[in-house]
Amino acid sequence: MATMVPPVKLKWLEHLNSSWITEDSESIATREGVAVLYSKLVSNKEVVPLPQQVLCLKGPQLPDFERESLSSDEQDHYLDALLSSQLALAKMVCSDSPFAGALRKRLLVLQRVFYALSNKYHDKGKVKQQQHSPESSSGSADVHSVSERPRSSTDALIEMGVRTGLSLLFALLRQSWMMPVSGPGLSLCNDVIHTAIEVVSSLPPLSLANESKIPPMGLDCLSQVTTFLKGVTIPNSGADTLGRRLASELLLGLAAQRGSLRYLLEWIEMALGASAVVNSMEKSKLLSSQEGMISFDCFMTILMQMRRSLGSSADRSQWREPTRTSDGLCSLYEAALCLFEE
User: Where is region (Disordered) located (predicted)?
Assistant: First the structure.
């Protein structure tokens, strides 16, 4: 007989919603497939088993043997108590059966998949928090998006400071790139972008995927940074070769963290556009051989992270990879095609 599924505490992780949406629905129909998906829930700590409750097998309190006959009301009371005790025992036995255990696992897996679908496609303005109680889906609270909260004067001052700070940073970077090559400004700009790449790489996968939990000011900052970096990647932007390459890598990292097809397609559009400019300028031999390139290791790290997040089980020999140069680089054009195929 299968082990009884203990009471569990549900704690859905937002960054795994995309992974659950892509799960094969046909596998839920088989007991083996349900067992694999349930073990995934447990390993990701989205389902936390709780301690098994002590079984109460004590029956109803019946009167001792007495010579006096019981009244009809008392007899009905004791009969109801006996039947209720037998019904509780029957429920306990049935819940310990293999069928009941597999059914409860299947329901939890379906609940997780439906939550991911609802959160990604039908719940943009609010986030439904799962009730952290054993086997209880009631009591789900709707938390309004932070964008619906009234803005205070403090929020306005913070937003003004962030906006002006970003504008100042972008202006300083552009001015430093326009300095002569012998100046120290170039390395300073590239160090800033390289530090940003390290910060984005250190984040857990899909940390920026749930935009309903990001304040409007954060989304606006991401939009400004993305627009600035797109302008930097163009060969005639004024930045040096390394700066353009680092900007492409940072853009790709942000697109992967945001976990949406829209941002990945925007990166592909940027890469193809930059490659087209590079090809037109190479004909006049105005560019070096490292133009229109990106770090091979950086690109493959992000690509492998995407495949792990989606639970890809394909053979690695079937995966398309860009050509790696002797400098450890690959062309933006090949990287865009590889990402588009993915």
Answer: 125-154
